[in-house]
Amino acid sequence: MPPILLAVDKRYARGLVWLRRDLRAHDHAALYHALRSCQEVLCVFVFDRAILDALPGQDLQPRPDGLRSDRRVEFILASVQALRERLRGMGGELLVRHAVAQEEIPKLARALQVQAVFANRDDEPQALERDAQVLGALANAGISFHTFKDHCIFERDEVMTQSRTPYTVFTPYKRAWLAKVDDFYLKSYPVHHHAQALMRMPEVAAGGGELAGLATAHEALPTLQALGFAPTNLPSLQIPAGTEGAAAMFERFFERIDRYDKTRDYPAVRGPSYLGVHLRFGTVSIRELAAPAHQLALQGNSGAATWVSELIWRDFYLQLLSHHPQVGQGKSFKAVYDRIHWHQGKHADALFAAWCEGRTGYPLVDAAMRQLLTTGYMHNRLRMVAASFLCKDLGLDWRRGEAWFAQHLNDFELASNNGGWQWASSSGCDAQPWFRIFNPVTQSERFDAEGKFIRRYVPEVAALPDKLIHAPWRASPLELEAAGIRLGEHYPQPLVDHAQAREASLARYGVVRGTEAPEPFAAKPKGQKSPRRRVRG
Ligand SMILES: Cc1cc2nc3c(=O)[nH]c(=O)nc-3n(C[C@H](O)[C@H](O)[C@H](O)COP(=O)(O)OP(=O)(O)OC[C@H]3O[C@@H](n4cnc5c(N)ncnc54)[C@H](O)[C@@H]3O)c2cc1C
């Protein structure tokens, strides 16, 4: 439970709210608590050089102007702009800085003469390290640092097994989550009731020395170019930024939520919410999504129940990362999987490049990878298929794929991305069994039967009939000619033969497990329970 600060106890004259991945002015834990405990509250957002300068950009080739493209930076900038307007409308101010956050926040806190800094918690290992340094620097200056749970329903130790250990299996975690959740955890923080404590830029900022520059620095937002980034195609994608964008998207999704369980696996259908990027940057509050969905689920709406389940997966992976931070630093959850010998060298690099660019010769995989490159989004079903293809068909280290997704996904979230990759590569907790290998053709026939999604992203094969579009190499020369395709010229030959790749993968994983590959495929390996046939997403 977050610490509750008494309304009457305005124990600080002035406080600073440091916004990070929570770009909204409503239902915001840190802002709410700051407003209740300070007579005056200022807000700040830092475009953190420690993060931005390390971003590789999303361009396949370096740009001649030296800038990088990254849809997320553009999304954040637009959301920060909207947030600043919103806070000003409420009588407040949002200072915006471009600096190294762990240096800037203590400096700013001193310059603004605040007694406390408030922020929402971020349990990613690098964020924890940064916050520990900020805490130390603030403490040296006699300034308090308060952090709050905000971006999940349950964090850290809040949902534990009866023996007070963290859950590592989803289903019992979900059961415990659902048993614990109630109105208290789902209700919004009523920021607006206390908004009178928001303040504009104080006089003090006009001073010299450490205060110099602050008076003007709050006037203009940095441009995308000043941050080192070039404009992307974000405005042409249907991902409106800011809290208004999030609210509009949620409203549209809520109209179709009762079909979510039936539509969410089909990439050509508008099934999912596409809200991941808003959850990532906090332009929507998890409570404002979970509360109405949970309410519907309690009334027996199976679409809403399935969607709530997905939000629980998010909490599951967040708590997992907080208990096992090594998974976010390149380690398999099950250590034995770190002994797998993945392909390496030039050929492996060429396979990886083909996967990244959507040139594997498997149309569904290629459509998925091109969707990621052109929009920054990839459908959940396709994330599973593409990830499985990388490690189990191409025999490449899942960490390479994890890094590629981290670079390109608008909704990149360390906990969920790592969880998803470790699930697909079988190295994670409660993962896909090592001997279960997605067949990319069967997946395609099942989830994009008419090839609608494939045709959207792989126009080279669009003229093939539905039954052949999933595996163009099965078409006869005449059928290929009729579709205007020469394999190897207009569209690649498949990089690998799935049946052979599957055998190789079983052997690769079998070595790790000290056991022979199970034969036949579905048979139970010696001493192991029958695999559960669980399709998740
Ligand atoms: C290899 C792989 C990598 C992934 N990387 C990420 C990532 O970086 N960031 C991310 O948010 N999700 C990730 N996911 C989970 C999931 O694919 C996305 O959350 C989902 O596709 C986002 O689309 P949406 O917002 O339309 O989701 P919806 O289907 O509308 O779901 C709503 C929200 O629930 C959460 N959610 C849904 N499925 C999952 C899941 N399996 N695990 C955790 N949370 C989930 C997300 O916050 C999502 O926005 C990954 C999955 C895999 C298999």
TrEMBL record:
EC assignment: 4.1.99.3
Cofactor note: Binds 1 FAD per subunit.
Record InterPro entries: Crypto/Photolyase_FAD-like_sf, Crypto/Photolyase_N_sf, Cryptochr/Photolyase_FAD-bd, Cryptochrome/DNA_photolyase_1, DNA_photolyase_1_CS_C, DNA_photolyase_N, Rossmann-like_a/b/a_fold
UniProt region (Disordered), positions on chain: 517-537
Cofactor needs: (6R)-5,10-methylene-5,6,7,8-tetrahydrofolate; FAD
EC class of the enzyme, as a word: lyase
Comp. bias (Basic residues): 526-537
Entry GO MF terms: deoxyribodipyrimidine photo-lyase activity; DNA binding; FAD binding
Stated name of the protein: Deoxyribodipyrimidine photo-lyase
